[in-house]
Design brief:
About 70% of the residues lie in helices and about 0% in strands. It has about 60 residues and is mainly alpha-helical.
């Protein structure tokens, strides 16, 4: 059985649903903290290309 099928089977199981719910709750709590929110926004900005770089991440093509 391929790994992705095992992952999907687990995700649909009661244990998988519980794990997903717990991870989601923890991520939401983490994101509510202003310090963590600032870190998340900083990483998002970097991934999206930063301030005024045109979305290239500051790299020349």
């Amino acid at each position: 059985m391929p790994l992705i099928d095992k992952i999907m089977k687990f995700a649909k199981s009661p244990q998988g649903q519980k794990a997903i719910r717990q991870a989601t709750d923890k991520a939401q709590q983490f994101a509510k903290d202003p310090k963590n929110r600032a870190k998340i926004d900083d990483v998002r900005r970097r991934l999206q290309g930063g301030k005024g770089t045109g979305g290239t991440g500051g790299r020349s093509l």
